[in-house]
Design a protein that fits this description.
Sortase, Chain: A; alpha+beta; 6 helices; eight-stranded mixed sheet; 31% helix; two-stranded antiparallel ribbon; 275 residues; 2 domains
Length: 275
Amino acid sequence: MSRSKKINKKIKTYNYILICLLVVISLILLMFLMESVFFRPYYLTESREKNITKSKKSDAKDYETIGWVRVQGTNIDYPVYGAIKNTFQYPVNDKSFTWTLNEDTDFHNVMMVYGHNIMNLGPKPKMHDETFTKMEELMDFVYYDFAKDNKYIQLSINGNDYLYKVFSVAFIDVGYYNEYPEGEFSQEAKDLYIKDMKEKSIYDYNVKVPDDSKILSVVTCTRFFDDDINYDFIVTGKLVNKGERANNYKVTKNDNYKKIEKILKGSDEDEESDA
Protein backbone atom coordinates (compact mmCIF):
# COMPACT_ATOMS: atom_id res chain seq x y z
CA MET A 1 0.00 0.00 0.00
CA SER A 2 1.38 3.36 -0.96
CA ARG A 3 2.15 5.97 1.63
CA SER A 4 -0.58 8.31 0.34
CA LYS A 5 -3.17 5.54 0.64
CA LYS A 6 -2.06 4.84 4.22
CA ILE A 7 -2.40 8.54 5.05
CA ASN A 8 -5.87 8.69 3.49
CA LYS A 9 -6.91 5.59 5.45
CA LYS A 10 -5.70 7.15 8.71
CA ILE A 11 -7.57 10.37 7.90
CA LYS A 12 -10.76 8.41 7.25
CA THR A 13 -10.28 6.53 10.54
CA TYR A 14 -9.73 9.77 12.46
CA ASN A 15 -12.80 11.33 10.81
CA TYR A 16 -14.87 8.27 11.70
CA ILE A 17 -13.71 8.46 15.33
CA LEU A 18 -14.40 12.20 15.41
CA ILE A 19 -17.90 11.71 14.00
CA CYS A 20 -18.59 8.99 16.58
CA LEU A 21 -17.41 11.30 19.39
CA LEU A 22 -19.61 14.12 18.11
CA VAL A 23 -22.60 11.76 17.95
CA VAL A 24 -21.97 10.56 21.52
CA ILE A 25 -21.57 14.14 22.80
CA SER A 26 -24.75 15.19 20.98
CA LEU A 27 -26.67 12.28 22.52
CA ILE A 28 -25.42 13.20 26.00
CA LEU A 29 -26.43 16.84 25.49
CA LEU A 30 -29.82 15.72 24.20
CA MET A 31 -30.32 13.54 27.30
CA PHE A 32 -29.50 16.50 29.56
CA LEU A 33 -31.93 18.68 27.60
CA MET A 34 -34.68 16.07 27.86
CA GLU A 35 -34.01 15.75 31.57
CA SER A 36 -34.31 19.50 32.11
CA VAL A 37 -37.35 19.95 29.88
CA PHE A 38 -39.34 16.75 30.29
CA PHE A 39 -38.24 15.17 33.56
CA ARG A 40 -37.21 18.05 35.80
CA PRO A 41 -39.97 18.97 38.28
CA TYR A 42 -41.99 22.01 37.23
CA TYR A 43 -41.45 23.68 40.59
CA LEU A 44 -38.96 22.83 43.33
CA THR A 45 -39.15 23.25 47.08
CA GLU A 46 -36.50 25.39 48.76
CA SER A 47 -35.58 24.92 52.40
CA ARG A 48 -36.88 27.64 54.70
CA GLU A 49 -35.45 26.19 57.92
CA LYS A 50 -32.97 29.07 58.38
CA ASN A 51 -35.74 31.62 57.77
CA ILE A 52 -37.95 29.97 60.41
CA THR A 53 -35.10 29.87 62.94
CA LYS A 54 -34.40 33.56 62.39
CA SER A 55 -38.10 34.49 62.65
CA LYS A 56 -38.47 32.60 65.94
CA LYS A 57 -36.15 35.14 67.58
CA SER A 58 -38.99 37.68 67.33
CA ASP A 59 -41.75 35.43 68.70
CA ALA A 60 -44.00 36.89 71.41
CA LYS A 61 -45.82 35.46 74.44
CA ASP A 62 -49.04 34.67 72.56
CA TYR A 63 -47.79 33.62 69.11
CA GLU A 64 -44.85 31.77 67.63
CA THR A 65 -43.35 31.09 64.21
CA ILE A 66 -44.56 27.61 63.26
CA GLY A 67 -43.59 27.57 59.60
CA TRP A 68 -43.13 29.39 56.32
CA VAL A 69 -45.31 29.86 53.22
CA ARG A 70 -44.13 30.54 49.67
CA VAL A 71 -46.43 31.11 46.65
CA GLN A 72 -45.08 30.61 43.13
CA GLY A 73 -44.82 33.75 41.00
CA THR A 74 -45.42 36.19 43.90
CA ASN A 75 -43.40 37.93 46.60
CA ILE A 76 -45.24 35.86 49.23
CA ASP A 77 -42.35 34.19 51.02
CA TYR A 78 -43.29 34.84 54.65
CA PRO A 79 -43.29 33.34 58.14
CA VAL A 80 -46.43 31.64 59.44
CA TYR A 81 -47.41 32.55 63.01
CA GLY A 82 -49.45 30.19 65.16
CA ALA A 83 -51.50 31.13 68.21
CA ILE A 84 -50.31 29.95 71.61
CA LYS A 85 -53.64 30.85 73.21
CA ASN A 86 -57.13 31.91 72.15
CA THR A 87 -56.62 35.61 72.87
CA PHE A 88 -53.71 36.84 70.83
CA GLN A 89 -52.59 39.81 68.77
CA TYR A 90 -50.24 39.41 65.87
CA PRO A 91 -47.66 42.15 65.23
CA VAL A 92 -49.52 44.06 62.52
CA ASN A 93 -46.65 46.52 62.36
CA ASP A 94 -44.43 43.77 60.97
CA LYS A 95 -44.05 44.15 57.22
CA SER A 96 -44.40 40.56 56.05
CA PHE A 97 -46.14 37.70 57.84
CA THR A 98 -49.03 35.27 57.71
CA TRP A 99 -50.85 33.33 60.41
CA THR A 100 -53.04 30.37 61.24
CA LEU A 101 -55.73 30.14 63.90
CA ASN A 102 -54.31 26.84 65.13
CA GLU A 103 -53.08 26.68 68.70
CA ASP A 104 -50.49 24.03 67.91
CA THR A 105 -47.62 23.38 65.52
CA ASP A 106 -49.08 20.17 64.05
CA PHE A 107 -49.17 19.47 60.33
CA HIS A 108 -52.92 19.04 59.84
CA ASN A 109 -54.90 17.46 57.00
CA VAL A 110 -56.20 20.95 56.19
CA MET A 111 -53.93 23.95 56.78
CA MET A 112 -55.32 27.48 56.37
CA VAL A 113 -52.84 30.33 56.17
CA TYR A 114 -54.14 33.91 56.34
CA GLY A 115 -52.53 37.19 55.36
CA HIS A 116 -53.47 40.87 55.12
CA ASN A 117 -54.25 42.63 51.85
CA ILE A 118 -53.84 46.35 52.54
CA MET A 119 -52.84 47.93 49.22
CA ASN A 120 -54.61 45.84 46.55
CA LEU A 121 -58.29 45.58 47.44
CA GLY A 122 -60.13 46.96 44.40
CA PRO A 123 -61.63 45.45 41.23
CA LYS A 124 -58.49 45.95 39.15
CA PRO A 125 -55.71 44.33 41.20
CA LYS A 126 -52.14 45.31 40.49
CA MET A 127 -49.85 42.38 39.80
CA HIS A 128 -46.60 43.70 41.24
CA ASP A 129 -45.77 46.79 43.23
CA GLU A 130 -42.82 47.66 45.46
CA THR A 131 -45.27 48.81 48.17
CA PHE A 132 -46.70 45.28 48.52
CA THR A 133 -45.29 43.69 51.66
CA LYS A 134 -48.18 41.50 52.76
CA MET A 135 -50.54 39.21 50.82
CA GLU A 136 -51.45 41.69 48.06
CA GLU A 137 -49.85 39.68 45.26
CA LEU A 138 -52.12 36.69 45.92
CA MET A 139 -54.65 38.65 43.84
CA ASP A 140 -52.45 37.97 40.78
CA PHE A 141 -54.40 34.72 40.45
CA VAL A 142 -57.45 36.59 39.10
CA TYR A 143 -55.51 36.93 35.84
CA TYR A 144 -55.70 33.81 33.71
CA ASP A 145 -52.26 34.23 32.15
CA PHE A 146 -50.76 34.30 35.64
CA ALA A 147 -52.80 31.36 36.93
CA LYS A 148 -51.84 29.07 34.06
CA ASP A 149 -48.13 29.71 34.70
CA ASN A 150 -48.10 29.58 38.51
CA LYS A 151 -49.52 26.47 40.14
CA TYR A 152 -47.63 25.64 43.32
CA ILE A 153 -47.51 26.64 46.99
CA GLN A 154 -44.84 25.58 49.49
CA LEU A 155 -45.49 25.16 53.20
CA SER A 156 -42.48 24.54 55.44
CA ILE A 157 -43.32 23.20 58.90
CA ASN A 158 -41.73 20.93 61.51
CA GLY A 159 -38.49 20.60 59.56
CA ASN A 160 -40.16 19.58 56.29
CA ASP A 161 -40.86 21.45 53.04
CA TYR A 162 -44.20 20.44 51.54
CA LEU A 163 -45.35 21.28 48.01
CA TYR A 164 -49.00 21.69 46.98
CA LYS A 165 -50.62 21.68 43.54
CA VAL A 166 -53.17 24.48 43.18
CA PHE A 167 -56.60 23.10 42.24
CA SER A 168 -58.87 26.03 43.15
CA VAL A 169 -58.90 29.83 43.06
CA ALA A 170 -62.10 31.14 44.60
CA PHE A 171 -63.95 34.09 46.11
CA ILE A 172 -65.78 32.97 49.26
CA ASP A 173 -68.27 34.86 51.45
CA VAL A 174 -66.37 35.47 54.69
CA GLY A 175 -69.04 33.99 56.95
CA TYR A 176 -69.31 30.85 54.84
CA TYR A 177 -65.98 29.14 55.36
CA ASN A 178 -65.61 30.37 58.95
CA GLU A 179 -67.97 27.54 59.83
CA TYR A 180 -65.16 25.08 59.11
CA PRO A 181 -62.88 23.97 61.96
CA GLU A 182 -59.27 25.03 62.29
CA GLY A 183 -56.61 22.36 62.25
CA GLU A 184 -57.64 18.75 61.70
CA PHE A 185 -60.86 18.38 59.71
CA SER A 186 -63.14 15.38 59.94
CA GLN A 187 -63.28 13.41 56.69
CA GLU A 188 -66.81 14.68 56.08
CA ALA A 189 -65.80 18.32 56.63
CA LYS A 190 -62.73 17.94 54.43
CA ASP A 191 -64.72 16.32 51.60
CA LEU A 192 -67.23 19.18 51.73
CA TYR A 193 -64.45 21.76 51.78
CA ILE A 194 -62.75 20.24 48.71
CA LYS A 195 -66.11 20.07 46.92
CA ASP A 196 -66.85 23.73 47.72
CA MET A 197 -63.42 24.92 46.60
CA LYS A 198 -63.78 23.08 43.28
CA GLU A 199 -67.33 24.31 42.63
CA LYS A 200 -66.53 27.93 43.48
CA SER A 201 -63.17 28.02 41.68
CA ILE A 202 -62.90 30.46 38.78
CA TYR A 203 -60.66 27.95 36.96
CA ASP A 204 -60.78 24.24 36.26
CA TYR A 205 -57.50 22.50 37.08
CA ASN A 206 -56.49 19.13 35.71
CA VAL A 207 -55.65 17.87 39.21
CA LYS A 208 -57.06 14.82 40.94
CA VAL A 209 -57.75 15.35 44.64
CA PRO A 210 -58.17 11.94 46.33
CA ASP A 211 -60.12 11.65 49.60
CA ASP A 212 -56.92 11.22 51.64
CA SER A 213 -55.26 14.37 50.22
CA LYS A 214 -53.77 16.93 52.58
CA ILE A 215 -55.00 20.44 51.75
CA LEU A 216 -53.55 23.95 52.04
CA SER A 217 -55.52 27.18 51.56
CA VAL A 218 -53.86 30.60 51.41
CA VAL A 219 -56.40 33.30 52.25
CA THR A 220 -56.61 37.09 52.04
CA CYS A 221 -59.36 39.72 52.01
CA THR A 222 -60.67 41.62 48.98
CA ARG A 223 -63.21 44.21 47.83
CA PHE A 224 -63.00 42.96 44.27
CA PHE A 225 -66.80 42.99 43.82
CA ASP A 226 -67.14 46.45 45.35
CA ASP A 227 -70.34 45.57 47.27
CA ASP A 228 -71.43 45.19 50.89
CA ILE A 229 -70.51 41.50 51.11
CA ASN A 230 -67.08 40.76 52.53
CA TYR A 231 -65.18 38.20 50.49
CA ASP A 232 -62.00 36.28 51.03
CA PHE A 233 -59.81 35.27 48.14
CA ILE A 234 -58.65 31.70 48.58
CA VAL A 235 -56.00 29.78 46.64
CA THR A 236 -56.12 26.08 47.53
CA GLY A 237 -53.82 23.18 46.74
CA LYS A 238 -53.40 19.49 47.44
CA LEU A 239 -50.18 17.98 48.74
CA VAL A 240 -47.72 16.56 46.20
CA ASN A 241 -47.13 13.10 47.66
CA LYS A 242 -43.93 11.06 47.53
CA GLY A 243 -43.52 9.56 44.08
CA GLU A 244 -45.81 12.17 42.54
CA ARG A 245 -44.30 14.64 40.08
CA ALA A 246 -44.55 18.40 40.40
CA ASN A 247 -45.63 18.74 36.79
CA ASN A 248 -47.06 21.44 34.57
CA TYR A 249 -50.78 20.75 34.21
CA LYS A 250 -53.72 22.26 32.35
CA VAL A 251 -55.74 25.22 33.65
CA THR A 252 -58.85 26.55 31.92
CA LYS A 253 -61.39 29.29 32.64
CA ASN A 254 -64.85 28.10 33.62
CA ASP A 255 -68.29 29.73 33.88
CA ASN A 256 -67.40 31.30 37.25
CA TYR A 257 -64.71 33.32 35.50
CA LYS A 258 -67.22 35.15 33.30
CA LYS A 259 -68.19 37.49 36.17
CA ILE A 260 -64.53 38.09 36.99
CA GLU A 261 -63.74 38.84 33.36
CA LYS A 262 -66.64 41.29 33.15
CA ILE A 263 -65.43 43.17 36.25
CA LEU A 264 -61.86 43.32 34.95
CA LYS A 265 -63.09 44.59 31.60
CA GLY A 266 -65.27 47.19 33.33
CA SER A 267 -62.28 48.36 35.33
CA ASP A 268 -60.32 48.88 32.12
CA GLU A 269 -63.18 50.92 30.62
CA ASP A 270 -63.48 53.02 33.81
CA GLU A 271 -59.78 53.82 33.69
CA GLU A 272 -60.04 54.88 30.05
CA SER A 273 -63.05 57.15 30.75
CA ASP A 274 -61.25 58.69 33.75
CA ALA A 275 -58.25 59.43 31.56
